[in-house]
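Structural prep section.
Before we set up the soaks we want a predicted structure of the protein with adenosine-5'-triphosphate in place, mainly to decide which crystallisation condition to try first. Input record follows.
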Amino acid sequence: MPPITRLSPAAALRGIRVDFDDTRAVDGVDLDVARHALTVVVGPNGSGKSTLIEVLAGARTPSAGTVVVDARARAFVPQRAAVAERLPLTVRDVVVVGAWGRVGAMRRLDREARTAVDDALRRVDMTALHRRPFATLSGGQRQRALLAQGLARGADLLLLDEPTTALDAASAALIRDAIADETARGTAVVCVSHDDRLIAEADVVVRMETGRIIGQEPGRGRRKKSEKPRSPGALAGVGGGE
Ligand SMILES: Nc1ncnc2c1ncn2[C@@H]1O[C@H](COP(=O)(O)OP(=O)(O)OP(=O)(O)O)[C@@H](O)[C@H]1O
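Run finished without errors. Recording the tokens verbatim:
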């Protein structure tokens, strides 16, 4: 596999189609996902955004097309948490699951993984609540805990479906800061979002409508223009697998 370079895309989709019975949710999508960048996917309800990010996450197999992921690790934070209400999991337990990606499932965390859990809790301002049962959290607190799970994974491809939806202004700002820190360290971050503040900070804005990408523009980004990432190169040279 060729080495990962700054300009090779972290993920590349070609001709992606996803059909649900009689609904074509995604209809022939090509997309290169840039490293060191926040890509925000926008579009009306039902335009296929969540389905597309699920394909990028490997959580949904497309009906047609190819997915090439060139990342050491990817983390996906879906819109709704698949955390069983009756399991007696604390906030910390939920975040530890993210760190298992570093040490192996059910394994004791080493010092580095414990630090990753503590850092992730701090970055989403959930340290004080780390012993709370996850099931007792509010919607916004759950969202922050799940983002911490994604951060603890240390992924270089981070996929977030509506990460600021249920959040108050201060919490949403915290999440935007965490995303900016991730892109600064080289992570390719893809968010589905309707949040104007987050969209304004995108490096790339991808517009979807009825399952298709109808536009892809550079966004304003957070950084100075001179620091903006260049668009990813052609597919050539992208290695497969994780
Ligand atoms: N599991 C499923 N079974 C059947 N149809 C589905 C399923 N998931 C999504 N769809 C359909 O696929 C289309 C795209 O849905 P998707 O959730 O990807 O859109 P979206 O752009 O993320 O919408 P929103 O902004 O409302 O979250 C919609 O018509 C939806 O009804």
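Observations: Residues 20, 23, 25, 43, 45-51 surround adenosine-5'-triphosphate (CB under 6 Å).
Flagged for discussion at group meeting.
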